[in-house]
Each structure stands twice: as C-alpha cells, then as structure tokens.
User: What shape does this take?
Amino acid sequence: MDVGAGEARTRGIRGRARERERIGRLVDAADGPGSKVLVLTGQPGAGKSTLLDHAADVAVARGRRVLRVRGCEGEQGLDFAGVHQLLSPVLRDIDRLPTRQRDALRHAFGTDDGDGQQIPEPLVMRSGVLTLLSEAATERPLLIVVDDAQWLDLCSLDVLAFVARRLEGERMALLLAARDESVPARFDRDFPHLPTGPLDRAEAGLLLDEQPHPPRGKARAEIIEQAAGNPLALIELARAFAKAPSLQRPGAIDALPLTTRLERLFAADLPDLPPATRHALLLAAAAGTDRLSDVLHAVPGLDDPEVWRPAEEAGLVRVENGDVRLRHPLIRFAIHQAASFADRREAHLALAAALTHEPDRRAWHLAAAAFGPDEEVADALAQSAERSRRRGGYAAAATALERAAELTPDAERRAGRLLAAAVSAMYAGYPQWVGEIAARVGPLTHDPKLLAEASLCGGWSLAVTLRHADALGFLLPVAESMATAAPVLALDALATAATPAYNSGDPVHRAELQRIGDLIPLQPDRSDRLWAEAVARPFTEREKAVKRLRDMVDGLRDGGVSDPTTLGDLMMLGATAWILDETDLAVRLLGRAMDHYRPAAMAGTNCTVTQALALALFDSGAWTAAGAAAEDAYCLAAEAGAENVAVGAPILQATLRAVRGDHTGARERAAEAVRGIELSRSRSLYVRHCQALGMAALSEGDHGTAYEHLRRVFTQDSPPVPVHHHASPYYLADLAAAAVRVGRVDDARAVLRAVEDHLGTPRSSRLDAIVHRATALLSRPDDAEPHFLSALADPVGARWPFERALTQLDFAEWLRRRRRAAEARPLLAAALEVFERLEARPWIERATAELRAAGVTVAASAAPEAVAGLTPQELQIAQLAAEGLTNRDIGARLYLSPRTIGFHLHKIFPKLGITGRAQLRDVLGP
Assistant: This one.
C-alpha cells in the first residue's frame, strides 16, 4: 500500500516517547545522516502496528513517500509474495529497469512470457528490487514499512535484508516490526533493534480512561495487573469486563498466558454472531489474506454487506475497498481456534475450490484441509515447490517440500522429499534449516544411501559454522561407510569434511581424513580427492600434487563453466591451489567460480568461495580487491549464518588495516570479529587473529607486543610445533623480525628449527623464501647474507610482493649497516615501489628513511595518499568510473543502485581533491 499521497493523520499514542523519538530520527535518516534501518520488536498487542502507523503519518507529514507490506500467514509459502505486495504501487515502472533486472523480477513474480526453465539469478532480481525502490525515491525520500515480518515468506525476507544492507547513499529508510520471539534470522543480529516494552501503570491508566467504558475500582486494578502493560490487553480486557462482569471473579483469566488471554477475549464475541457471519469470518481467517475476493469466490452470497455488518459492529473486522481487514492478527487465531477441525477443513476446501487458477495457493489450502497423509495433496505441494524453484524461490520450495513430506504416506518417498527440501534450503542459504530437515530423514528409511545423503546435508549445514567436530561427526562416517558402495558420494562427503578439518586444525581430524581417503577406490580426475589430500598433507609430495592440480585445471577448459560439477571443481581446485602456494592460479580459479556463484542463491557456499578468494588476493598483493571481497564475504556470511566466514572475513579486514598502518582500527576490527567467540577449537581463525594483532603491533613499532602475538601461532612445547599445520609457518619470518628487536632470538631459533622439520623438503618457493628470510634475520651477522640471497633468488617470489618487499627491506638494512649502500639502494627502491602500490604506510616510511640514509633523495609520494582515505568499495567504484562506466553500469556490476553509485562518487571526489569523474583517471593512473 502506497500512502505517500495521503494526509497525515493524528493518532493518540500513550507513552512511547522513546520509541516515537527514535522513529522520528529514522524517518529523517531517509535523506539525512543516521542509521537507515530499525527493527521494532515486542510481544503481540504491544502496539507495534500502531507505532508503524505513527511512523507512516510522520513520514507523510515530513514529505516522505511510504511503501508498506504486512506479513500474512496464508502467504508464507508463496515465494516473493511480500515483495510483490510491497512493490505493487511502483510495478508500473518495472520497464525502466535494466533488461536483466526487469526480466528477473518478472520471472520471480510469474508475469514473464518465458517457459519457466531459466532460473533467474537471485542477486540480479534483488538488485532490481533495490533499483526500483531507488527510482521510487527520486521525487521524495522513501520509508519502507514492514509489519508482521515473522510471517513474510523467506524469499521476501532475503530480498529485504539485501536492500537493508545497501541503503547507504539511498534516499530510503526501512522500519520492520516483528514479534520479539520471532524476529527473522536475516534481521536478528546485524541491524539496530528497538524493543517495544510494556506501558507503565500511569500510562496504562490513561489508556483505560480513553475506553468507552473505563473500568473503576477493583476491576481497574485487576485489569492493569493482568494486562502487564500490554496496550491491546488493556483495551480488550476493559471491553470484556464491561460486557461480562463475571470475568471479574478471581482466576477467570489471570492464569492464562497473555496471548492466550487475548485470543480467548477475541473469541468471546463469536458465539453471539449470526451463523452466516461466523462462517464468513472463518473463511476470511482461513484465507490468510486481506483480499475479500478470495472469500467471495469461495462461497456465493458473501458479497452482501449485511453478512459482515455484525462482525464490524463487534470490532472484529473492517471492510473497505474490497478488502477484509481483521482488527488484529490474534483475531485470526481466535476465529481459527474457536472453530472445529471439520469447520476449518470445510473452509479450506472451499477456498481451494475457488483458487483453481492459483495452483500454489490452492495446494496450501488442500494441505491445511488434509486429515493425515495424502499423496495427492503432497504431490500438489511438490509441484508447487518445483514452480518456486524455477522462479528462484528456493526457500519457498523448501517450505513446500517440507510440508509435502509430512503429508506423504510412503516413508521412503517422505525421506526423499525431505532430502529435496534440505537441498532447496541449502540453495536458499539457510544452514541451520538444512540441518533441521536432514535430521528428520533418519527415522524414515533404512536405505544406506538416503541416510548417507541426509548426513551429508547435516554435515554441510555445520561445515560453515564453528562447530567443526560436529560437522565431521556427520561427514567422516558417510565417507567411510560409502567408500566402496558409493565412492562418488564418499568423495563428496570427504571433500565437504576437508573444510571443517582444515579450519579445526586438529591433527586427529587430518589423520582421519587421510585414513578414510585411502579407503575410497581411485576415481580419475577427482578434484575433491585432491582437495582433501591437500588439507591433510599440504607439504607432502607437493610437486606431484601441483602436477595433478595443473592437469585437472587443463581438463576444465573443455567443460562448460556453468555446469554444477565444473563449478564445484573450480572451487575445490582454487582452494587447493591456494594451499599449495599456487596463488596466481588460485586467484584465477576462484575468480571464475565467483563469476558464476555470485548470482546464485547458495549464500553459504558463496561466502566461503568469496573468503577464499579474498585470502588469495591478499597473498598476491591485490589488497584493494581483497578488501572488497572480504566485505562481500562478511555480508554474505551474515545473511547465511555462516559463522566461520562471519569471523574470518573481519579478521582479514583487520589484517589489511594493520599492514596499511591503521593499527588502532585493526585492533578494533579484530576484537569485533571474535567478540563472544571461543577460537580454541578453530585453530585457523586463532592463528589468523594472532597474525592480525601481531601486524598491528609491528605497524605501530611495538615489537614486544608483536612478538607475543606472533609467538602464539606456535606451541610452547619443546620443541615447538605449529598451532595450525598449514597457516602457522607463513608467519615465521614476521616472528623473526620482531624477535631480533626484543632479544628473543634463541626462542625464535627453536621455532625456526621446528618449522623446518615440519615443512620438510622440497618447499614451495614462497615458504622457501620465508624460511630463508627468518634464518637470515636470526643468524649471526656474518652468516646472514647467503640466506637473504636465497630468499630473493627465485623470481617466482614476486608473486607475493609484500613478503618479497619485506625481505628486500631487511636485506638492504643489513647491507647499509655494513657500508654497502650502493648495493642497498636498488633493493630499497624496489621495496618502496611495492609498499607504495600496496599503501603499506609504516613500511613506506621505513623504506624512505633507509633510502635517505643510503644517500638517496626521496620525493614525497602523493599517489598512495590520494587514495588512502577511500574505502575498498569506494576505490573499486572510482576505478570503474575512471574506466568510463556509467553509474548504471557500475551499479549492475556491483549489485548497487545507480543512486548509491552517485552518492559514493560525491564522497570520493572531495577525498581525492577533484570535482568530477573526468579527473579520476589522472588521479588514479591508468
């Protein structure tokens, strides 16, 4: 409903000064500073809807446009029903969208002319919604008001969460209300919440005084006590006490929970209504929608206004503009609960008969009328799920399949439908839901393969969390039990298990990975086996592993990248390349995978691939791209509930801040990342967190603190061992650099010897350079030079520019101190060029100081300073604009609206000291 053109109405609200003030700030934030999203929570009857009405009135009075959507239980199973309701007033502008966005939206709403075979890209569809809303806010700022969010379909919630995360720069704000115990997962943690608490006794008394028959005396005190500050309870109890004084007897309703009390109060009016009115109300309640046409088509004769008049006079409904509006959602429950199952069933069957033209809604009404298992109804729901899947509504498909399974008489078929529901939930990006569905398969079947597939789904749901041992508890038994019976399934489980095994870093898990892998018969050209082997033994027989990797990559060129198997290969081979220090190859493979995963709906997988790409980009020296990928990974992980990435991506962001000189920001981001998290069971994250803090200390010049943090990535045992078998050795040289400055050389040498034994030979070029740099720093001065030379000997080392530049800087310092300044200068110049390109300010200053000490006049470098104040996203936008792309082109590429791109550019220009996009190329360079 668009109320933007209406006049502001005055509503009496008792109390709520804090809530009204916060809502007023949100309305102003639509085109001003401040948070643009607010989640209003409270128990039923707390007044959330009244506050939303107040927000709409305030918005209209302040010149805003308002678009509203209200969740409806009857449409929870219909994909994108909520978004369609929200956008109805502006759908006439859909033809103004970019072609792909327009087509994706039409497909999602079922209004296209296609055959339904092409599944729309979810991110394109969501970007279309954002663009359409942005266009709607062109003339006036826009307030999006969402009521009863707990009853919105999951697809719409995903779209709203996508929009909510991208409101910066838009002339929009979003106000969403939900019951406090049912806040949708997408809005549960990452947006500000405003609890709608109880009224105090004085405010409650004033509200009672405004009722037609204000209670007095003992009844008044009793109502205030029982209502517990709930506004709706106060109003309804006052009305009920006025009509039925017998309710005043002790114990009449005070022992009931508040919601049950209210439902009983609403139902108290039903027996006095005429039978035709009661039947009409039951149909309206069963329809689960405000559309009166649904009810009229179900039973002839209901278009008589006299049928509805008694319900209106009783205050239960309001009929206007062809809609039946129940005064409160609890009335729907009261009507439903007051009717017998036979009456409810009759209502749903009548509605199903009237909705033959809407097969999805018809299927849900048949399901509501089902009396026990019913294959025909289950089949109708399964068909509805398939239609939803083709529209990209994976969450709706999972919901329909889950209900279809409940109605399926045959246990084996029920298990199959539950598995299909779990897969759809996986594509929808709901790991916890996947696990819940998969857990229900076990009691239904004895089929080993079905049980194994259910365990695989359950393990996948945990693999993106920090519950590594629990995930492996599902996955490793599947791999072992299916090793000979279904080797392909076994390898799938083993590859899935490799991720939590890597993240846990527990040697027991790696040993099991290796043992079970040896049980599975060889399958030619399987990337999943290579990935599992690389996790278990990253440094053993590396040369053979790299050859197998490159052979498999060459084989990919013949396959279509859009094929799911090929996409999985890209992801696993890219991750394998990263582990084996084939970093350039990892960036290429993971980048190709992201090009195809990015539009997909598998947020859990999507964020995992994005984080892997961010890590590879960081290692390769593409720090700006790494920062943008880490931000994307975090947003995706927050939406998917993927804890491992939701912690890991901010740790990488902290590391980036550290190496660029923002040591305070780095520590803050690292602290935010692990707040409330126990890292002891996730050694990979623990080690990376230590590195982030260590680099922050190094950038500040606090070498003692740096050594303490970096020393923690190795145990205190004698001899020390890496805390994480793969990640820890890469921080050895940084540990050595801190050690020589704080007199901890002997301790660091013990770590060095242990790491050399752990790595064995031959080592990758990268690790060889790291070990030689550490050895040079920890050697006696006269013995250091051969190790510095060895660290720089292999030209392949240029693939890791920051690490190579650090070695050049260390070696140059060693040379200058031995009065060999002429030899030091080219090393310092090369290192400074890298540091400037990476914007590594602490090391720019150090290299510049060394060059001056070596007799070189160094001009101040303006290039890094020009872009130092830009965020990774701002720099990405600036670079695309410098290439000549329009705001619309950039927005389509980054899944932002053109208005948001314009907003960012207007912030970028003054930061760069320019006035327009024509000057971007001059500032940023070619």
Notes: The longest strand covers residues 172-179. The first helix runs from residue 17 to 29. The two ends are 49 Å apart (CA to CA).
